[in-house]
Amino acid sequence: MNTALITMESQEINSGLCMRLTTLFLYRLNRISCLRRLRKHPGRILLVSSKLCIKATAFTTLAEANAMLFVARNTSVPVPKVYCSFKHKDRVYVLMERIAGQDLSQGWTQRSEGSKARILAQLKTMTAELRSITPPDGIGVANVDGGPIFDQRLPDESFWGPFATIQDFHRELRRGLELGDDEEAFPGLRELIEFHNGPWQRPVFTHGDLSSLNIMAVDDKVTGIVDWESAGWMPPYWEYTSAWHINPRNAFWRDAVDRFLTPLPHELEMEKIRRQYFGEF
Fold it and tell me: Which segments constitute the Aminoglycoside phosphotransferase domain (predicted)?
C-alpha cells in the first residue's frame, strides 16, 4: 500500500568547502586511536573539544540538523547550535555545539524532590513551546522538512513516510489491517483501529525521544535537549507515549514523564496494544 507522499529532500547547512574540509579533518583526527584513548568517546557523538562535537553515524540525517535549526529559530528551547551539516560519501556529518552539563540519567535518583521539580518545570515549559508551533499548511506525519521520519523503535524499518495524514501513518503502523479483518480474535484490536482512525487534530512538532539520556543539565538548570534524529510532525500523543516507552536502563524516568508531559492513559494503552500485535521494542 502506498500511503507515502513524495519525499522532500533536506538541505545542507553552511556546507561550503572550508567548513566541509574542517569538519572532515576534525572528525578523522579525533578518530585516530591514540587520540581516542585520551578523550571520552561515548555512544554516537565524537567529542572534539569542550565546545564542539560531531555526529556522523550510519543513521545521522540532514533532517536532524535542520530540526535543531528549526527549534532554535522558532522557540527558546535550548538545543545545540549547528555550525554545518553535509553529506560526504553516503554519510552525513553534523558539526555542532557541545552542550554543557551531564544528561539527567546521571544522578537523577539521588536528586532532591526540589531539584527534580525545578528541572521538570523547565521541561514542561519547553515541551509546551514545541507543541505550540503552528504546523505548515498541508503537513502530515513527516520530519521537519516534510520528508520521512526516522525512529529505530518502529517495526521493520527505521525510515517511514512521509504520510499525508495521521490516519495513513497509523494504517502503515498496523500493516494495513482494517476493521473486519479478524479483529475479534485479538483483544483490543478493534478499539486500536477505531482509535487510529480518529478524527485527529493536526500533527504537533515532536522531539520523539525525551528520555533522561537526551536532556542535559548543570545543577538544576536544563542546558539543552539533544538527539533530534526522531523529531518531526507527529500525532499529538506521540511525544508522551515515546517518552514513556523508554530504554530499559531508563525505567526510573517513567515517573518523571508524567510530571512534564500531560498523562495520556488511553493513548498509552492503545500504544501498548499496537506494540503487542505489530511490535518493536
Answer: 61-262
Tens-digit pLDDT profile for residues 210-261: 999 999 999 999 999 999 999 999 999 999 999 998 777 778 899 999 999 9
Neighbours of 113 (CB within 10 A): 7
User: CATH homologous superfamily of domain 102-278?
Assistant: Aminoglycoside phosphotransferase (APH), C-terminal lobe (3.90.1200.10)
pLDDT tens figures, 68-77: 999 999 999 9
Q: ∠ CA 46-69-99 to the nearest 5 degrees?
A: 40
* Alpha-helical segments (H) within the chain: 17-31, 33-36, 62-74, 113-131, 166-173, 189-197, 238-244, 253-260, 265-278
User: What is the rounded distance in angstroms from the CA atom of residue 14 to the CA atom of residue 109?
Assistant: 41
HSE-up of residue 65 (Cα within 13 Å, Cβ side): 27
Residue 158, class by beta-carbon neighbours within 10 Å (0-12 exposed, 13-18 middle, 19+ buried)? middle
| Block residue for cell numbers 532554535 | 72
From the options 3.30.2010, 2.40.50, 3.30.200, 2.60.40, give the CATH code of 17-97. 3.30.200
Q: How many CB atoms lie within 10 A of CB 127?
A: 22
pTM of the model as a whole:
0.90
Q: How far apart are CA 5 and CA 251, in angstroms?
A: 36
